[in-house]
Specification:
7 strands; alpha/beta; 6 helices; single chain
Length: 210
């Protein structure tokens, strides 16, 4: 098994989640060197796996000796036919939704989601977070891991932790949102933690290539 995976993301939240997920595996997560100088690829695939594979293969060509970790993840809301899905990070921007006084991308996305769901009853606000992780080297994808967590969407945000849609994503078994979970415990419930566990298993099967 490798000792280091170089993550192709500039998101501090994702890096934190990946590091937490890798905590007991003996694998260290480090940012991909020079990532900010590499032009981002167009994420034009219709599925999370397609985009994760695309990014892992793309970024690994810029560092052919390293194992590069890439992800695609997002929120699927059943009442919205699975949207925002692969467009989760761009949900508000795609719709041209940019209310005055709303500073961050996460805030805009959350407000737009609430607007889209304002007439949807509580019992049909079911949703899931989904994540696919891919590891590649030299342009070749070597392993894939997928994870999901089921929940529902609240009518107002709760909690100051996490990022993305976490303040709206309610976990019924915990009676908390993802943003209210202690960071140390989040790994056991998060889609990224589950995807990383699946990735570790897949990497073990591909150990000779690693």
């Amino acid at each position: 098994m490798p000792s280091i995976l170089n993550a192709a993301t500039t998101s501090a939240g994702k890096l934190r989640d990946f590091s937490a997920a890798a905590g007991h595996s003996g694998i260290r997560i480090e940012p991909l060197p020079g990532l900010r100088d590499i032009p981002a690829p167009e994420e034009d695939q219709p599925t999370f796996e397609g985009n994760a594979r695309l990014k892992a293969a793309y970024y690994s060509r810029f560092a052919p000796d390293l194992l590069v970790l890439a992800d695609d993840s997002g929120l699927e809301v059943d009442a919205l036919s699975g949207h925002p899905g692969v467009r989760s990070a761009r949900y508000a921007a795609d719709a041209g939704f940019s209310p005055a006084g709303v500073a961050t991308l996460d805030e805009r996305n959350n407000l737009y989601l609430l607007e889209q769901m304002k007439n949807i009853a509580a019992e049909v606000r079911t949703a899931r977070y989904r994540c696919v992780l891919a590891v590649a080297r030299g342009g070749e994808v070597l392993a894939i891991g997928e994870g999901a967590v089921e929940g529902s969407i609240l009518t107002a945000p709760r909690g100051d932790g996490g990022f993305g849609y976490d303040p709206l994503f309610w976990l019924p078994e915990l009676h908390k949102t993802m943003a209210e979970i202690d960071p140390a415990a989040k790994n056991g419930f998060s889609h990224r933690g589950r995807a990383f566990s699946a990735l570790i298993a897949a990497m073990a099967e591909q150990n000779e290539k690693m």
